[in-house]
Design brief:
With about 190 residues, the chain is α/β, with parallel strands linked by helices. It is about 30% helix and about 25% strand. A seven-stranded mixed β-sheet has the order 3-2-1-4-5-7-6, with helices on both faces. β4, α6 and β5 form a beta-alpha-beta unit. The N and C termini lie far apart (about 45 Å).
Length: about 190
């Protein structure tokens, strides 16, 4: 990403939580709905484009045994997210600056990769996802979300990178989508 994008979000971070609906039930409802869909309990979670950390912190509360990481292009967003962690003696939650187009983790590092209101980086999300793991893409304002990706495009592009769509829906004004990376099977 360009330095201009980083600067834009660094400036936006200064009043992000008070100016947007970040962390409100409206903002988190699609993610909350998607995590209720039946699936394996994740051990390692990544939120891409975590902003000030509300989605990652929600996921940490929902999955109290999981290690949760958040990444965002904006250093100021990450500083604000880190201040929200609070008491975390096991260091389950951590945030880092980075670009979603080139995630800084090895392949197959996470059981769940989630994002809220972000452009989708299909190949990178698939690369860092373990076999059997899931991707959750949510848009808190549905089609009105600035970075909304239509469901038919999510279906097609995730299939292209080896993920099988598992479910999608609408809740409140938002939308959610889940795909699973196929588990490796050994012939016998």
């Amino acid at each position: 990403m360009s330095a201009g994008v980083e600067r834009f979000f660094d400036r936006a971070a200064l009043d992000w939580d008070s100016r947007t609906e970040t962390g409100t039930p409206t903002h988190l409802e699609p993610l909350a709905t998607a995590v209720l869909e039946e699936g394996p309990v994740p051990e390692r979670i990544l939120e891409v484009g975590c902003g000030t950390g509300e989605g990652a912190l929600f996921l940490a509360r929902e999955f109290p045994r999981a290690s949760v990481r958040g990444i965002d292009i904006s250093g100021e967003m990450i500083r604000r997210a880190t201040r929200k962690i609070g008491l975390d003696p096991d260091a389950r939650v951590a945030f880092r600056v980075g670009d979603a187009a080139t995630l800084p983790w090895p392949s197959e590092s996470f059981d769940l990769v989630a994002q809220i209101n972000m452009p989708v980086f299909f190949s990178e999300m698939s690369r860092v996802l373990r076999p059997g793991g899931r991707v959750i893409v949510t848009c808190s304002m549905g089609e009105q979300t600035p970075f909304f990706t239509p469901m038919r495009l999510l279906n097609r592009r995730f299939k292209k990178v080896g993920l099988e769509p598992e479910g999608s829906g609408r809740t409140g004004s938002g939308t959610w989508f889940i795909a699973r990376k196929q588990a490796v099977t050994h012939g016998g």
